[in-house]
Amino acid sequence: MIRINEHYLKLQSSYLFAEIKKRMRDFQEMHPDQEMIRLGIGDVTRGLPSACVRAMQQAVSEMADNATFRGYGPEQGYDFLREKIARHDFQDRGADIAADEIFISDGSKCDSGNFQELLARDAVVALPDPVYPVYLDTNIMAGRTGEYANGRYQGVVYLDCTKENRFVPSLPDQPVDIIYLCFPNNPTGASIDKQGLGKWVDFARRNKALILFDAAYEIFIQDEGLPHSIFEIEGAREVAVEFRSFSKTAGFTGTRCAYTVVPKDCMAYTSGSKPVSLHDLWFRRQSTKFNGVSYPVQRAAEAVYSPAGRDQVREFAQSYLDNAKLIRRSLQEMGFDCVGGIHSPYIWIDGQRDAWEFFDLLLNKAGVVCTPGVGFGRCGQGYIRLSAFNSRENVEKAVERIGKAL
Ligand code: PLP
Questions:
Q1: Confidence (pTM)
Q2: pLDDT tens-digit series, residues 345-397
Q3: Least buried of 55, 81, 267, 351, by fewest C-beta within 10 Å?
Q4: How many Å apart are CA 149 and CA 155, to the nearest integer?
Q5: Measured between alpha carbons, how far is 359 from 182 in angstroms, rounded to an integer?
Q6: What CATH number has the domain bearing residue 394?
Q7: Ligand 1 pocket residues where CB is under 6 Å
Q8: Domain limits at 396?
Q9: Pocket test for ligand 1, best of 108, 213, 214 (most atoms within 8 A of CB)
Q10: Are 24 and 36 in contact (CB under 8 A)?
Q11: Of 250, 276, 306, which marks where a domain is finished?
């Protein structure tokens, strides 16, 4: 008899975005003429930067010609892209990362979800609450948690992010093995400074733990003093892996390209305490299970680092940040306590009521879709997340409608 992985049955049945979609569908059926403005799901709305489009078109033409055609590529990505990333995203910022420590992929969702496969099933996981739900769900699937009760899974060390700690988690008061950190944070928009991140690196080194650092929103950091990468912190090469994505940086949510940095010094241990290179394990895992990213898409990603591409992605990020500023200011003027929206496209709003109740209110009274904070963890109860990923016109309309509705 074929049996299932019963850990899947521990997952909460409706994944956050599926439930939001269902409520949106219900609303649209009841109000077919009302235009909905989506400030919920964190998908970008602007077309690809022209530098990326041109590079992709050129690569497609190469694929059409026998002389320049490329078949199976290296699963870790082409050197032309890995080298640009290492130089521009790391070495230029003083972070010691080499091209062969970069693994190109089709998304940070898969990478941040899959990386835990390399680690022991009984490893203790610490993760922020609230946070991007993929970290928790993939560890539930892997069997690293107990049952669900009162909004929490047994066996997980939750790092509460609240107003009191300005949504930056404190170190756990017990040893843990896997630590997920996400800065700038989804959903709160909080950022971390070098000193704060340094404490986590020291903690991981003391405890022989591993930090899985998600920097998918790095492009939105405005303050030059803030770290863009965990590898700007001394000692991080030994204890950290970093996930980066072109999704929010360059509008690649439909095109798909991301990368994961696994330094060669980063170790995990056998039950006999023998160190094993995570770089070697991830290389082996990706060579076996991952097909790589298509050549035209990698050429498009490479164009992000051209002079024109760099200007264009900066302009993209700035336009979303301008929207974020408007949302934050407007909601503050309406009397709501808000964080985020400065180094991040997300604004985290204390709704002063149940998160789903506030979601329904904004949808039904203003036709605006937000994300209820509780979908990101128990500490998100009472909050909603608004995203700046939309046109200026829609954002202006949305804040006006919210103002009227409230
Ligand atoms: N990491 C965080 C924190 C995210 O919010 C998201 C998407 O919303 C991702 C990763 C997914 O990135 P990708 O599109 O590269 O899979």
A1: 0.97
A2: 999 999 999 999 999 999 999 999 999 999 999 999 999 999 999 999 999 99
A3: 267
A4: 11
A5: 24
A6: 3.90.1150.10
A7: 42, 107-109, 112, 132, 182, 186, 214, 216, 245, 247, 253, 258
A8: 6-47+308-405
A9: 108
A10: yes
A11: 306
